[in-house]
Amino acid sequence: MARPVLLLLCTFVVLLASSTMASAAIVEHSFDVRDLTVTRLCREQVITAVNGSLPGPTIHVQEGDTLVVHVYNKSPYNLTIHWHGVFQLLSAWADGPDMVTQCPIRPGTKYTYKFKIIQQEGTLWWHAHVSWLRATVYGALIIRPRSGHSYPFPKPDKEVPIILGEWWNANVIDVENQALASGGGPNNSDAYTINGKPGDLYPCSQDQTYKLNVKQGKTYLLRIINAALNNQLFYKVANHKLTVVAVDAEYTKPYVTDVVVIAPGQTADVLLTANQPVGSYYMAAHPYASQPAIPFANTTTRGIIVYDGATSAAPIMPVLPAFSDTPTAHKFYSNLTGLKDGPNWVPVPLHVDEHMFVTVGLALDRCRNNGTCLGQNGQRFSASMNNASFMFPTSLSMLQAFFFNVDGIYTADFPDKPPVKFDYTNANVSNDTSLLFAPKSTSVKKLKFNATVEMVLQNTALIAIENHPMHLHGFNFHVLAQGFGNYNPKRDIKKYNLVNPQRRNTIAVPVGGWAVIRFQANNPGVWFMHCHLDVHMPWGLATAFVVENGPTPGTRLPPPPHDLPQC
């Protein structure tokens, strides 16, 4: 009797393995990156684009698939592509941030990104990670459950990417370079966009308004991505409720709302049921400006949801929150919770190995121009974490330096706390020159493999308080708590959600406040952490984690691919 049972068990194991292998595929794409002339806002503009479109191509994969993307750089600029939110387990060489995990793909050359999608489902995205190129070089990355698995919510009738972007009537590289040269802030964008289209509130844009046709009674999964460079956004659909079921490719407990708040880099999967009278309804987005004293583009993009059978009556417009409506933004951000025991759910690690308290905010750098710079006090605007203003290496990527044990590229001395303790969110410190100047360095935090890190991200009032969206490459983190003012461990640790916190890769640190995140460093390599406002990243609001190799071959970073670009 034992032999037939053993034979049956072996057959079951083989069938299970075959089923698992059959459900995983190799998905291959080619990105042709070059200049493209498009017409927006009454004028022609040359942009950098992928495969001749804005946004670029949407990539569809299933969990477990291997993605292979051949990038041909036919543009005049250095280029890398970042797969925003992908864990890149043992594939850090494919993560993409310029001079962190690779040197750039030079004009006229190519590089192939290859990585596996592991234990992730939902909406992510890809974008350029050199200078401001991501203003037009971006697209959706949609990860569906592997064959035989389903969503943890009713299957929608249709899935629709909604990519919110930002548009300049200028060459975005020139906009960035002019700001860096002057030491001041960059020019604001001229429009916001939905799937590359500005919408009919802007000049010459009646025929450049995104339209979504729906059928009454059907449910649609809107995969919302904020690809804007420098603005968080409020998003609404007139007369419709939205049910959030995932953020940053992590399932959430369903959360019903009439407004979605989304920071640059973040994604939100929301269900919209077409349950209103047949007609036309605007979807609209405009900025959440947490610090209205800082100039911003106070315009609105909108698209149209059209029910089958609708007449030509004017669409209904939603009432968006005020630009500086922090209570609405905080309510949305702080009410999301994780779907405990749902697909790919990861419990909160309870033992913490590394405690970090990290200030995030603006700073100044000494003016090096022959004259006065355009930043505060005639200096250059800068930014820092724990008073360390990040500076990219120039001769070798940080990941190459880690793998080949090359000294002089970075220093493993990023501090666990700020060098000076002060009243972080008190507006009276905004022009305290003893605190404003942050030295430049390529300073990183070194972590043991599998170490659990808890980080308090504390906003400061230096120069100005504002909400900072902080993005961590290579990991998702649990958001344990968030609030306003200075973080107080005796008071605020009682607010920790250790049961079902939201888990994501980008956290909008509240204006004049703080957020506590926790993650496990189970992926060897060099992982960038930075503000996803592109105005702040080149100013230095960034650092990196260097995670040591684990003890076994399956926990060690493999060698770089043969075609890795060289500096």
UniProtKB/TrEMBL annotation:
Record-linked Gene3D superfamilies: Cupredoxins - blue copper proteins (2.60.40.420)
Keywords: Apoplast, Copper, Glycoprotein, Lignin degradation, Metal-binding, Oxidoreductase, Repeat, Secreted, Signal
GO MF entries: copper ion binding; hydroquinone:oxygen oxidoreductase activity
GO biological process, one term: lignin catabolic process
Gene Ontology CC annotations of this record: apoplast
InterPro entries per record: Cu-oxidase-like_N, Cu-oxidase_2nd, Cu-oxidase_C, Cu-oxidase_fam, Cu_oxidase_CS, Cu_oxidase_Cu_BS, Cupredoxin, CuRO_1_LCC
Signal peptide: 1-24
Location of the protein in the cell: Secreted, Extracellular space, Apoplast
Domain of life per record: Eukaryota
Domain Plastocyanin-like, chain residue ranges per copy: 33-147, 159-310, 413-550
Catalytic activity, EC: 1.10.3.2
Reactions the enzyme catalyzes: 4 hydroquinone + O2 = 4 benzosemiquinone + 2 H2O
Function as written in the Swiss-Prot or TrEMBL entry: Lignin degradation and detoxification of lignin-derived products.
NCBIfam families on file: laccase
Family: Belongs to the multicopper oxidase family.
The name this protein goes by in its record: Laccase
